[in-house]
Amino acid sequence: MPIWNPEFESMSRDELSKLQLERLKTLVEHAASMSPFYKEKLAQAGITANSIQSLEDIAKLPFTTKEDLRHSYPWGMLTVPLKDVVRIHASSGTTGKPTIGAYTRADLDLWAEVMARTIYAGGVTEDDIVHNSYGYGLFTGGLGFHIGAEKIGATVVPASAGLTRRQLMLMEDFGATVLCCTPSYSLVIAEEAVAEGINIKDRLSLQVGFFGAEPWTEKMREEIEAALNLKAFDIYGLTEIIGPGVSIECEHHAGLHIFEDHFYPEIIDPSSGEPLGYDVEGELVFTTLTREGMPLIRYRTRDRTVLHTDKCACGRTTVRMEKVLGRTDDMLIVRGVNVFPSQIERMLLEFSELEPHYQIIVDRGKHELDILEIWVEGVDNLFMSVDPQRIQTLERKVEDRLHEALVVHCTVKLMKPQSIERSLGKAKRVIDRRQLDK
Ligand code: DLL
């Protein structure tokens, strides 16, 4: 498939490193002179732009954390006067103040560029109709896809999330060829089609979908591709760095290409902060090399992944990140054992009798012992069976499978279709009631 900007996406790695180094030096200079926050942080670490002689020197720079952003809310991280900021987005923190992203005109141009690269990587052209069901508003999903699809010249339908029946009608009437939404909402759309008796293969013209903003497994990809009759691409990003458009899968689905000319990635050990290099799992860290309004140096994303540099068959030369494996802060510790929600999803979807709608409940039982419960919906005909044991037998089978892999015991509760709450955006998979008591 063609590449939107081959000059930068397929640049030789040597040339790319030179460009990154130049941009990194400029960034340090700019941050040290324009941001009181970085001025102080860099001075404390004894860093000036001259301290950066090679890309490895990035490890001398201090990290920036979500807490730093919270403390400087709302405008403390700006490196331009507020009058030069033309847009604000924010990520919905579950508690307290949100984390903001501030964009100058140049930042919006950059966002349009990386989102055009993203959507083009899925084969989208000016002939396509892009149905955008990411939420419009402070969330970056809606306007991020919007700006990129417009840059390509595609026809954008800014549907936003919700009113699913109406979304199906619009997709059919307008002949949408591209769907953009969270992976969990794509399944809500597919379910609604079944409930309305709409045969997606006959009535919709979808070819590709861009799904992101939350973790999803390969098994989930199979479910979505089959249910919506399209090719599903994973897209990654975060408000603090730019929104969606940090990395994208190409047609080979061999990890997500990071737009490294703008976002410099590192993998670190989340406990020690030591850089781990390529091919090793750890926490993803980004330095925004070209952001103008709110650049970030070594921002700790808390997302866990692995970076690879081997060549991709698509011709892009950029580093690829594996699908996000989870977050450093979403790991549950249940009776002393580490449990990742993505592990649970992978195993549940091995069972053809189960639907990809589930919730993980952690609570505290007798003697303060942790209890892990998995609620998962079964397929419709499971509940029509005349055999009363069928459900219990399946529950025990799933429990055994989970126990084998997680090493910790859990209780599985099979639920009727539609009984787990659906989400228009990011799905809420984990309910940790232990935290509620704190
Ligand atoms: O979720 C931006 C976005 C919008 C990405 C639309 C893709 C599509 P935030 O709300 O700030 O921004 O949340 C960022 O979501 O640190 C990850 O933990 C998670 N995340 C985003 N994309 C993926 C993905 C948007 N493809 C946080 N896979 C990030 C797994 C993802 N997790």
User: What's the count of strands?
Assistant: 21
Structural category: alpha/beta
* Termini Cα gap: 51 Å
CATH architecture of the largest domain: 3-Layer(aba) Sandwich
Number of helices: 13
Instruction: Kindly estimate the percentage of residues that lie in beta strands according to DSSP.
Output: 15-25%
Structural Rg: 23 Å
CATH class of the largest domain: Alpha Beta
Global outline: globular
Number of domains: 2
Unreliable segments of 5+ consecutive residues: none
Helix content: 25-40%
- Biggest β-sheet: strands ordered side by side in the sheet: 4-3-5-6-7-8-9-14-13
How would you name the CATH homologous superfamily of the largest domain? Answer: ANL, N-terminal domain
What's the CATH topology name of the largest domain? Rossmann fold
Can you walk through the features of this model?
The relative contact order is 0.11. The mean pLDDT is 94. This protein has helices at 6-9, 13-34, 36-44, 66-71, 105-121, 140-152, 164-174, 183-195, 200-203, 218-228, 341-348, 389-406, 433-437, and strands at residues 85-91, 99-104, 129-132, 155-157, 178-181, 208-212, 231-238, 243-249, 256-258, 263-268, 282-288, 299-305, 307-308, 320-321, 326-327, 332-334, 337-339, 354-364, 370-378, 411-415, 430-432. Helix 2 (13-34) crosses helix 3, helix 5 (105-121) packs across helix 6 and helix 7 (164-174) packs across helix 8. The chain contains 13 helices and 21 strands. The chain has a nine-stranded mixed sheet. A four-stranded antiparallel sheet has the order 10-11-12-15. It is globular and about 75 Å long. It folds into two domains: 1-327, ANL, N-terminal domain (Rossmann fold), CATH 3.40.50; 332-436, GMP Synthetase, Chain A, domain 3. The protein has 438 residues and is of the alpha/beta class. Residues 91, 134, 140-141, 212-215, 234-239, 243-244, 301, 303, 324, 327 line the site of 5'-O-[hydroxy(phenylacetyl)phosphoryl]adenosine.
